[in-house]
Amino acid sequence: MSRLPTPTTTRTSQGSPGTDLPLASELAAIRLGWEDGHLSAPLPEPVRERLTKRLELLRSCSRPAAVEAIEEEVAKLMLGFPSTRGVPVIEVQLQVRKYAEDLLGVPLWAIKDACRDISRGSVPGLNPDFPPTSPRLRLVVNGYVTKVHHEAQQIKQVLHAPILRPADPAVWESIRAGLVARSRELSCLHDTPPKPAPTLQEIEEHYANHGLAFERRRDIHGDRASDDREGEG
């Protein structure tokens, strides 16, 4: 009698794309400011680069999982429910295969994320004491995939959106100036290397010209104490 698929450490798979919260906030702000699918100003180059890289990552996470990998994740999910214990192995194998067939075409990371959340009881509407049906599991997995597709579509729309220039040239110049300032700000945040540490010669020259801070404070307080003593006399 054959056994359930067992976990392996040799298989590599795509990881979940996760969520880039700062970039998501930037994307939401951009979409709030456009009119009828038009941008009011060009995207700052650092923002365009980050959006492009994010889109490439999301597209790379769409490869469908192999049936063997799906069976492994489903088997691990089933073993976590007491209701599946005592069921004949052949029956469980057939059930796992049916689940895997219904999950064909989706990426492995989405299946893993769904099975993880179901095992933790964090999926609303599911009984934590019983495994989900095959159609319900597919719906949960599709929810993760849809979120990624929706984000990719939004990024693609922003990257290819035409620019709607205002009729007033002064307004356009103000927008252009703000864009330049924003680009410089982002460049400083992401691209500007830290300043090098001062050399020993620079440090010696600085203190030769300015002295030490605690010496300046001592002189100030010392003069004040001397004035007080003269007043008392």
Structural description of this entry:
Mean pLDDT is 76; it is low at 1-13, 212-220 and 224-233. The protein starts with 20 loop residues before the first helix and ends with a helix. The chain is mainly α. The protein is elongated, with a radius of gyration of 31 Å. Helix 3 (67-79) crosses helix 4 and helix 3 runs parallel beside helix 5 (108-119). The protein has 9 helices and no strands. It has helices at residues 21-32, 45-60, 67-79, 89-102, 108-119, 134-159, 169-190, 200-210, 213-232. The longest helix is centred in the middle third of the chain and has 26 residues, at 134-159.
Characterize the largest beta sheet: strand count, sense, and whether it forms a barrel.
Answer: none
Q: What is the element string, with H for helices and E for strands?
A: HHHHHHHHH
Q: Which residues sit in consecutive blocks of at least 5 with pLDDT less than 50?
A: 1-13, 212-220, 224-233
Summing up helix and strand content along with how strands pair, one would put the structural category as mainly alpha
Please specify the SSE layout and strand pairing:
Blueprint lengths: L20 H12 L12 H16 L6 H13 L9 H14 L5 H12 L14 H26 L9 H22 L9 H11 L2 H20 L1
Helix pairs in contact: 2-6, 3-4, 3-5, 5-6
